[in-house]
Amino acid sequence: MKQIIVFFLLILFGIHEKNVAQIISSDSLDNVSIFTTDALGKIYLVQKGGIIKTDPQGKILNTFNLKDYGEPFQLDARDPFKLLVFYRDFGMLRILDNQLGQQTILDLRQLGFADPRVICGTAEQSLWIYDLVTSQLSKLDLNQKKTQLSIDLRQLLGQAPTPIQMEQSQKWIAMLTDKEVLIFDQYGTFLKRIPLPDLKPKLFQLIEDNLYMSQGEKILRYNLGLNDMAEEPQILPSDCSFARISGAQILYIRNGWLVLPSK
Questions:
Q1: What's phi and psi for 108, nearest 5 deg?
Q2: Are 37 and 54 in contact (CB under 8 A)?
Q3: CA 192 to CA 123: how far, in whole Å?
Q4: Alpha helices of 93-252 — where are they, by DSSP H?
Q5: What is residue 151's DSSP assignment?
Q6: What mean pLDDT do residues 217-236 have?
Q7: Distant-in-sequence, close-in-space partners of 101: CB < 8 Å, separation ≥ 6
Q8: Nearest Cα to Cα of residue 160 among 136, 176, 142, 184
Q9: C-beta neighbour count of 150 within 10 angstroms
Q10: CA-CA to 258 of 20 to 30 Å: which in 61, 187, 188, 209?
Q11: Cα separation of 55 and 263, whole Å?
């Protein structure tokens, strides 16, 4: 009976029929605000302030329900064994292991970041953090010390950027702001600005040399090494709110539901 009710609710909210069986079989992953994926295809999502880890098919593996800092603003799973959970309102960063067990908590304000806005992890287990007050991008090493620091971006851009999301690969850092995309090298040196194809992209993801961004239903791929833009064959639903590429698949949030690729 529950599945019948869910089925008709999904039809009512406009979720395509081919995705219904997949959503119902994935432990009803509704009320999802944000999510991310790791290199192994595992999914990490925020549901009503709690954190859930699932396998690629949506089967729940682990949960973390401590909500002392409210709703997480950002998840970063670049390292599959260390999930970074950023609570922007409190300037706190929680690090969980691959079973969603708590490893440590960092108070970024106590570490010298007056207003940390976005973070991203690196392959060597350090962190990049952008501080809105100083307009600087800083790298925090394993000993919780700043090892690299960009210049004040206000000097380059004429104003302080307001970041929304930040992604990192081996060679690049890409920062999505409310006006454009800022590109840095792996050392935090500012390189260039890229105009936004869409003021509110649903997809913004850096994979190796390729930066993927949405433009309406279209997915654009910008090769940072070649400075080349191309359109991908896949499209996004017009009413999805957030999307991410995982392997050859696209996952997205639609009407609060995490929609997984149909089998």
A1: -65, -30
A2: no
A3: 23
A4: 153-157
A5: -
A6: 95
A7: none
A8: 136
A9: 21
A10: 209
A11: 14
